[in-house]
Amino acid sequence: MVYLVQSKEDLDQQLSDAGEKLIVIDFYANWCGPCKIIAPKLEELAQQYAERAVVLKVNVDDNEEITVEYNITSMPTFVFIKNGEVLELFVGGNSDKLAKSMEKYVGDDGEHLQQQRHQQLQQTSRTSESEAAISSASGSGSGACLSHELDEPDREPAAMNVQEVLEKERVLEN
């Protein structure tokens, strides 16, 4: 759940009550388009990490004292605090960065480790698929690997850049 901070005293109480949980403060304005766009993602993350994080929203127009204290000049601005220490601050409505930052600071629980392992396995699988595509296309140049990728538009791109593909092809040709 996202908590709407009403005053400086309210914020101080929320920070105190959070204990060792991660605190994410969203500095926003009602008239801010990017703030409105990212709000549903923030709510989703607040629910997902409810046991390990406290998500607070501070309206910059209604809470000037807090805005000045945190030196907020743009919205949305996200401040990550744990054990009284500011860990990170970033500006903008980047929902991927918000999710990654929350994941980074809430701690490595089993679910997080399981997601990391899954991503590593996917990475290994994509690299193996790319290597197989390159070796099957050894006589036809790099176009075969690219057309293989284009034949599967729903497939995530291989974990190789063009330079790596060309280098592997040169090795196979020699």
Question: Could you give a short description of this structure?
Answer:
By secondary structure, this protein is α/β, with parallel strands linked by helices. Helix content is 53%, strand content 17%.
What is the CATH-assigned architecture of the largest domain? 3-Layer(aba) Sandwich
Q: For this structure, what is the CATH homologous superfamily of the largest domain?
A: Glutaredoxin
Helix content: 40-55%
Per CATH, what is the topology of the largest domain? Glutaredoxin
Low-confidence parts lasting 5 or more residues at pLDDT below 50? 110-114, 127-166
Shape: globular
* CATH uppermost class of the largest domain: Alpha Beta
How many H/I helices?
7
Structural class by SSE content:
alpha/beta
Oligomer class: single chain
The domain tally reads 2
> What's the order of the H and E elements?
EHEHEHEEHHHH
Over the alpha carbons, how many angstroms does the gyration radius reach? 23 Å
Through-space gap between termini: 60 Å
Protein name: ThioredoxinT
Region (Disordered): 120-159
GO molecular function: protein-disulfide reductase activity
Biased composition (Low complexity): 120-139
In terms of topology, how is this protein built?
Layout: E1 2-4, H1 8-17, E2 22-28, H2 33-48, E3 53-59, H3 64-69, E4 77-82, E5 85-91, H4 95-106, H5 110-136, H6 143-151, H7 162-173
Parallel strand pairs: 1-3, 2-3
Antiparallel strand pairs: 2-4, 4-5
Helix pairs in contact: 2-4, 5-7
